[in-house]
């Protein structure tokens, strides 16, 4: 586990953490208060002939919260009880995924679900990951790299995924 000095500041969440081999550990913490709050969440779907159904988590005003760019055929993922890919499993209080240049992180804190998404490759190039600045509600800069930073209630998050599963369950019969 982290040494005490490596823990996030009070009121902040450890959003990203990854070992960099012999180069140490990249840790990025954000104040929870900087997350843009959304009352509503929904899983929005897209479809292509080559990749089937895709998913995107959206908030108030259909604002993008998190995409699942490398998840193809999400209908099959959501309906297969043995496939644990989607919805993201938050039973441990955290979920992370890293695919090519995409990095997404979800943290549960109290009744809130905090969602971060960024370009992993760009984040690796940051010289000072402690250079964290609130750009605008829902966007935080880490050394000049923008990270989406949003919050929804756990109830809204769970309901969005329940509706997504039900959508495909109803439409596949």
Structure, explained:
With 173 residues, the protein is an alpha+beta fold. The protein has one domain (4-171). It contains 3 helices and 12 strands, in the order ββββββαβββαβββα. The protein has helices at 74-79, 120-124, 154-171; strands at 12-19, 25-31, 36-38, 42-48, 52-58, 64-67, 94-99, 102-109, 112-119, 132-136, 139-142, 145-153. The strands form 3 sheets. Strands 3, 7, 8, 9, 10, 11 and 12 form a 7-stranded mixed beta sheet that branches. A 3-stranded antiparallel beta sheet has the order 4-5-6, with helices on one face. A two-stranded antiparallel ribbon has the order 1-2. Strand 5 and strand 6 form a beta hairpin. The longest helix has 18 residues, at 154-171. The protein is globular and about 50 Å long. The mean pLDDT is 92.
